Amino acid sequence: xxxxxxxxxxxxxxEELVALLELAARLKERRAQARRDGLLAYxxxxxxxxxxxTRTRCALVTAAAEEGATAEYLGLHDIHLGSKExxxxxxxxxxxxFDGIAFRxxxxxxxxxxxxxxxxxxxxxxxxxxxxxxxxxxxQTIREKFGTLRGLRITYCGDGRNNVVKSLILxxxxxxMHLIDCTPPELAPDPQWIDxxxxxxxxxxxxxxxxxxxxxAVDGANILYTDxxxxxxxxxxxxxxxxxxxxxxxxxxxxxxTGNLENGRLIFLHCLPAFHNHDTxxxxxxxxxxxxxxVFESTFSRVFDQAENRVHTIKALMVASLxxxxxx
Length: 328
Ligand code: CP
Ligand code: NVA
What we know:
The chain is an alpha/beta fold. It has helices at 14-32, 55-66, 87-97, 108-118, 132-146, 163-174, 191-203, 214-218, 238-245, 252-256, 293-296, 303-322; strands spanning 44-49, 70-75, 100-104, 122-124, 153-157, 178-182, 207-211, 223-226, 267-270. The protein is globular.
């Protein structure tokens, strides 16, 4: 993977995806032993962010620092991009100075153009369409719990065509998992795309399906996954989504309907940030949205392992594309 970008999980073969997850697991072990091997020593990384971030930004900064690289945060108003300088010019300048670029923003085409012009590895740290580094951490968290990915059943409940679920779909398909995207018809992903991905999933021993009834969709699930009902940039759709997605809230009753709550074969995942209580400006009056506090704080919730795994998987990605050793 040396020198390559990651814009969506389609950029990785099944073997490369598994190799990255294995590298992330090794890096996690080394970090637990407080080992610092300088796998990214003297590398420089630009973090070009149009949208806000807690986990992805902090994972990039800490992963870089732990292996000897320097990360420079370039927020929306910090550089000339868009106001006084075009994207191709900014990309070429950054490409002459840095070793890698992480980009978070709105239009997916921006990260595509950045990769085209920069000439150095570019990692998609979230666009309106895709969130590939999130899916890497999701898969690592699932593997840690179950020891495998193939054959496991994931049900995602919520906005069925956002960046997080589409990336999870690509990852699950490559790894031979059975994924149900449970969402209202209005928020379902492109059926042609689902057919295509389902064929890839079947070739790997899995399946990808869209369903609309949450109780039926969670039957047999090992992983319940949800995300916010309106993503960054969709603030105007918020009220409409509240009406549309209320029946898709992940509750203890839904967890119970999986049939796997009692036997310990169930985990709850959420990419975070999550609206699970009254403690945010958005939920102070209206209360929990996509998941109840009971599920979020339950013993089967793995959301903070998942958040930590952002570091190990992002580190694996940077080491694989820029590292001082041929590790992947
Ligand atoms: N899950 C995730 O990408 O979180 P941030 O928006 O905080 O980076
Ligand atoms: N779908 C969410 C993910 C945040 C990490 C968003 O794009 O806002």
